[in-house]
Amino acid sequence: MTGRRDGVTISQVAKAAGVARSSVSRAFTRPDMLSQQTVERILAVAEELGYVPNHTARALSTGRHGNVALIVPDVANPFFPPLIRSAQMEADRFDFCVFLGNSDEKAKQEDKLVGRFSGQVEGLILASSRLSDERIHAHAALRPLVLINRDVAGISRILIDSGSGVSEAVAHLAELGHRSLVYVAGPSSSWSNAQRRMAVRKSATALGLEVQTIAAAVPSFQAGRNAVPAIRASGATAVVAFDDLMAQGILAGMSEAGVRVPEEFSVVGCDDVLGAATYPPLTTVSNRSVEAGKAAFSLLMDVLDSSAIRDVRYMLETHVVVRGTTGPAPR
Amino acid sequence: MTGRRDGVTISQVAKAAGVARSSVSRAFTRPDMLSQQTVERILAVAEELGYVPNHTARALSTGRHGNVALIVPDVANPFFPPLIRSAQMEADRFDFCVFLGNSDEKAKQEDKLVGRFSGQVEGLILASSRLSDERIHAHAALRPLVLINRDVAGISRILIDSGSGVSEAVAHLAELGHRSLVYVAGPSSSWSNAQRRMAVRKSATALGLEVQTIAAAVPSFQAGRNAVPAIRASGATAVVAFDDLMAQGILAGMSEAGVRVPEEFSVVGCDDVLGAATYPPLTTVSNRSVEAGKAAFSLLMDVLDSSAIRDVRYMLETHVVVRGTTGPAPR
DNA sequence: CTGTTAGCGCTTTCAT
DNA sequence: ATGAAAGCGCTAACAG
């Protein structure tokens, strides 16, 4: 009963316009139910008084908030900002507000955030969720949920298939005459890593190329740089890295070792988060994160107004983006 | 009167526990007003029933939402994600939810977002706001407002002084024996650019160095790369770039031109958004965006519980971060 | 087409 | 220490 009461209320407008409160409400939400005259008069009075509908009261009454929550493991991971941005822009078209949550890669934190948000949103989008399948199902039972890059049966999800682009990259390398390559792996627990590793292996085998895998615990610039000696020792002429950051590290390592790219060695990254901002510009695999963000929001809207929709599984194919770090196999 | 009614309400808990609704409310918000026994019993019953306080109803009644909004010009600009992240983590400590808005660099969009958010937040944080002073004052009159990197008298603000770090960078260069340098400028309309440009000029003059300025309309990797011929023609032995992206482009351009960094030429970036992910790792100026995000939120909290606070002007100094792209002046 | 009347779920005086 | 009751501002039957 305290708190800042800063607004003109519907009652004041009603009194000033000489109508019932419900009419004022209708003037804003269902103007077709009122005579045009009345609507105009009410709107004029409202304008004059500086009336602004109270979002909270409306939400309490209707159960509709016009909010969604988007939770990501790490806002600062360059993969997410474009996704966040596009989800946001799409939300804007629907006049929705978006809460952003940072789970800090921790399931517990993510769980907490979902709880904090769920009372004031229509639905949630979980990107690369760290939650267990059980928790996801539990939350999905309470609120519409859309997943990005997480494949849980029964929950609507948008999946980015980096495998398709990686396969293209391998084919691209094969065409350039490379016969032996190495895949520099990312975190073994990662869905994306498994996907990429498998794609490299499968398409390389199909094209008669040799593949070796070099593991790196964390996908970092340093890890990529450190992998260079092993890569050179492998005898391969090209490398596909788990992500762009590692590829960038590899580029640096090669440069240090005096190996020219792409003349003597070819490098392919993954996720296209660097733009063309390396020298030479990095050949990589597109990420589709922009589409994923947009699609996730749209899907959530669909789920919202037809709660029958469940278990949608929307796969986004990726492609190789050929730039300057891949060239004909040496010799 | 429709909408999803998915919750156990306070009334149900009250009945099940054999107490008044107000007691249930107090058990959650003012347990000290009740006997410990009662509190325990109520909490147990609530737990058992799966009661969760309705955020919206509470907000309507108290006028307190526990939400803040953070608006940035572009989520995908690498300067902002760390800031967003830290503001978020700080908000988390206070159990606040944060709305994120992307103004897309447009004042009109920003204005719209502020309007959309302001009904359901305690206050707002505007980072690098594109709004006019008038609009900012107008909004600040309705809701507590904190600005980041925008200096408007009468409004609490956090300013990142990149000038201090740039001056350090120039001193660092002078110590290395450089006598002539060029500043590759960013957008002329930018507050930061003016700040940095002036710092370079001032400290260079003080140290007896020559400075030339090369302008670039947009701060991009390409712009940096394109500036290389002009930089080389200038006869300078070091360059300070408006931001890291341009510095990275300059690095690429130098590499293409066969100029070795830092042996033959020194390069300093600004904002430290690349981490050490270039080769050689870039010497740059710290950005303090993490502190800015955190400080902005804290300041907002301060403003909230002591509305007397206004016109706080909190300046964050920056520093040069010496890495691998600066070395002794050649010859 | 418009007014009357219940709520939505919670907090907060005011009593007791 | 606890209960009763009056809202917070808006929406949505239900009447007319």
From TrEMBL, chains A, B:
It comes from the Bacteria. SMART domains: HTH_LACI. The keyword Transcription applies. CDD domains: HTH_LacI (cd01392), PBP1_LacI_sugar_binding-like (cd06267). This is LacI family transcriptional regulator. InterPro entries: HTH_LacI (IPR000843), LacI/GalR-like_sensor (IPR046335), Lambda_DNA-bd_dom_sf (IPR010982), Peripla_BP_I (IPR028082). Pfam families: LacI, Peripla_BP_3. The keyword Iron does not apply. Residues 8-62 form the HTH lacI-type domain. Keywords: DNA-binding, Transcription, Transcription regulation. It comes from Paradevosia shaoguanensis. GO terms for molecular function: DNA-binding transcription factor activity; transcription cis-regulatory region binding. Transmembrane segments: none annotated.
